[in-house]
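User: quick one, sequence for these C-alpha cells?
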C-alpha cells in the first residue's frame, strides 16, 4: 500500500477508535489493531499516539469546516426563512453522509481536554460569525437597531448543532423531515425573520 493510502487507512482507524471507544483510547496499539496492521506499520508513518490523534483531528476538522461552509445560508438567496431551513436540511445531509466524523466531533465537544475543545471552538465561532453575517444581511434595516444579531446567530447555531446530534443519536425518533418541519415553524418566529413568508 502506498504511504498516503496507508496514512488514510490509519486515520480512518483513529476515527473509528474515537467513535467506538473514546478519544482517550487512541494509541499506537489500538489503532494498529483497528486497522489490522502491526505496530511497526503505524510507527512507519507516525511517531506516537499524539501525532496520530492530531493528524486525525486535522483531517476531520478540515473536512467538517468545508462541509459547514457549504451549508451557511446566504442572504442573496431571497427568502431568508427558506434559506435557513434549506441550509439546516443540507447540514443534516452532510452529517449523515459522514456519520463517524460528526460523532467524533460531538464526542470531542464533550471531552475534558482543553486542546480538543479549543480546536472545536474555533470552528464553532467561525460558523456563528457566518450565521451572524447572514442574519445582519437578511434583517430589514429598520429592525437592525433593536435586533440582537449575536443571540439570533447563536440560536440558529444551537438548532443546527442539536439537530445534527439528534439525527445521528436517534434517527428513527428524529428524522431530518421532522427536524425540517419544526424548523419551518421556529425560524419565522425569530425576530430577524418575523412576518417573513414561510417556506
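Assistant:
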Amino acid at each position: 500500500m502506498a504511504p498516503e493510502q496507508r496514512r488514510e487507512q490509519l486515520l480512518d482507524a483513529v476515527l473509528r477508535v474515537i467513535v467506538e471507544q473514546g478519544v482517550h483510547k487512541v494509541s499506537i496499539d489500538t489503532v494498529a489493531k483497528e486497522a489490522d496492521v502491526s505496530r511497526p506499520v503505524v510507527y512507519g508513518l507516525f511517531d506516537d499516539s499524539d501525532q496520530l490523534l492530531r493528524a486525525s483531528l486535522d483531517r476531520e476538522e478540515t473536512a467538517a469546516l468545508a462541509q459547514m461552509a457549504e451549508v451557511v445560508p446566504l442572504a442573496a438567496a431571497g427568502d431568508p426563512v427558506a434559506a435557513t431551513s434549506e441550509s439546516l436540511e443540507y447540514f443534516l445531509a452532510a452529517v449523515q453522509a459522514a456519520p463517524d466524523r460528526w460523532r467524533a466531533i460531538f464526542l470531542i465537544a464533550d471531552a475534558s481536554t482543553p486542546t480538543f475543545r479549543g480546536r472545536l471552538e474555533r470552528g464553532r465561532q467561525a460558523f456563528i460569525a457566518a450565521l451572524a453575517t447572514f442574519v445582519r444581511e437578511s434583517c430589514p434595516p429598520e429592525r437592525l437597531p433593536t435586533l440582537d444579531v449575536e443571540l439570533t446567530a447563536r440560536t440558529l447555531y444551537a438548532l443546527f448543532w442539536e439537530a445534527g446530534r439528534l439525527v445521528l443519536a436517534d434517527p428513527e425518533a428524529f428524522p431530518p423531515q421532522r427536524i425540517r418541519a419544526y424548523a419551518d415553524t421556529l425560524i419565522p418566529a425569530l425576530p430577524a425573520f418575523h412576518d417573513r413568508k414561510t417556506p
